[in-house]
Structures are given as structure tokens and as C-alpha cells.
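Before relying on records like the one below, remember that each one covers exactly one chain. Contacts with other chains, cofactors or solvent are not represented anywhere in the record.
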Amino acid sequence: MVGLVSTRAPFPTIRARSTFKFGISGCNLHNYLRYELQCPSSSLNWSLKKNAISLAPRASVESVDYVAEPATKVKFPKEVTVPGCTKSLILLGTGYREKVFAIIGVKVYAAGFFVNSSIKEHLSSFKGKTEKIISEDSSIFNSIYNAPCEKSLHIKLVRNVDGKTFWDALNDVITPRIKQVTGTDELALSVFRTTFMDRNLKEGTNILLTWVEPSMLLISVSADRLPSNVDAKIESSNVNSALFDGFFGDSPVSPSLKASVVSGLKAILN
């Protein structure tokens, strides 16, 4: 596998008319306001109605087109076109990866998992299943992986990471999941490593790991935006499946991502 935006309108200011400066007592003021609010023709009531739209939070365009990963607040588009894919992919779930240093959890990156919408055609046997069943049944993720349609993992760093550290973390996910490393696997791992080793991956870097087929993983990297080019190809079924299993197998490196994807699967299947 290839080594991977609500604003609130200000409340309207209601200015007291000159009546208030003539010594209205607290009680009279209360009665005055109650009358003004209850009388449909009152200027105060009219002013509130006119500004009613400003009293509620406005949903930004981004909230319609994007989904924010809860823990990191990183926003992922609901639909995206990635390098190497001819059709757009839909967002199935989001999550984050955390590393523990001296018992302190540090979030390293947020991730969004995208799939071709045709994936539903290959998962019909799972329709109606509960999230618990989907989560515990490894066959559904095997079906997703082997389905002849693209899927992509979008990783966005939330802290600076040097390339070697990033690769080492990926390698720790991949290699232990390969029962017997072949020459093809070693070559693929070498390409994976070379792609990241000399990079200075700063906060905000975007990485796409795109499975175009089980034996082909595309890696795309961009410092500050969604990548537009393919930086490397990983041609090893063992490496690619191990990477996928690292995120969606029995011991996922990002439990939050898998849980979110499970919810997404239930939604599209029902």
C-alpha cells in the first residue's frame, strides 16, 4: 500500500428608545417590554422578527460540504477526487491516530477514509447488520479491500513529524502483519520508505494512501493542500493488505477511525 473547513452572526443590538430615559421603574420596564413583545405591531417585536435570522447560528458552506473529525477538528470533504482515480470518492468515516509518550497521549494525525460509492454493490450481504456485528465481522473489511473499486485513506498531520519517524510508524504497522516477506514485498517496502525518509512532514501535510486495486497502492503527498499527483506506487499485495489491516483489522492503529467507518457503513447499507 502506498505510503497516505460555523460562524455565528452577532446578536442584533436592540437600542432603548428615548422612553427609557424618563425614569421607568424596574416593574414598569418589565411590563413595557412584555407589552412590546406581545403586541404584533410594536416596533420592538417587529425589530426582533426582522432580525430573527441573525439570532440563530448560521451554518457555513463548509458544514455542508465537510465533516470535522471531532478530536482534532480537522475537516474532510464529503466527496473528493484523488490522484489515480477516475471517479470521485465519498467519505465513509474519520478518526485520529495517537502516540503515547510517557503515558501522555499525543495526537499525530487525523484521517478520513474514502470509498467509491459503488462499494455498496459488493456489500449487499451485510445490509441490515448492526454496528456491533459489522465491527466484529472481519469479512466486511476483507470485502471492502478486495472489491474492484478504489478506496483512499487521507491522512492530515496535526503536528510536525520527520519523514523517518512517519515511515517507522507505518512500517511498524505493515511488517508484523506479513507472514513471510518476499522479494516483491522488500522492493515495495523500500519504495515506501524512500518516499518518506527525506521529507520534512510539517503540521498540515496531506498524505493520500489510495488502493486502486489489491496489488496497487498509490502514495500522494502535499505540504498544504490535497495532493494532485502520484508520488509513488506500491506494487505488493502483501504490503497493501497489511497496511489496510493495520487500520481496519482486529487491532487498528486508530480505533476511532474504524468505529466511524463502521457507522458510515451501516448508514450506506441501510
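The two ends are 30 Å apart (CA to CA).
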